[in-house]
Specification:
Blueprint (H helix, E strand, L loop, with lengths): L2 H23 L6 H38 L1
Length: 70
């Protein structure tokens, strides 16, 4: 995973965690908008992880091609 993707993933997870912990501090149900933010962050985190996996797979494929050519 590239350093930039790792950094983005960590920022997204940290923000999601902050929101969840803030929701836990209050009695009752959290605001719908905050719940949506957490859900949207989950989708973005999954998308970043998918891109990172694709990048890793592509890098492995390139590495295998170079090894075969050598």
């Amino acid at each position: 995973m590239s350093d930039k993707l790792k950094a983005l993933l960590e920022r997204l997870k940290a923000h999601q965690r902050t929101l969840i912990l803030a929701m836990a501090e209050h009695d009752g149900l959290p605001a719908g908008s905050t719940i949506r933010q957490v859900a949207e962050l989950e989708n973005v985190i999954a998308a970043v992880e998918a891109v990172a996996a694709e990048e890793a797979e592509a890098a492995n494929a390139r590495s295998r091609m170079i090894t075969r050519q050598a």
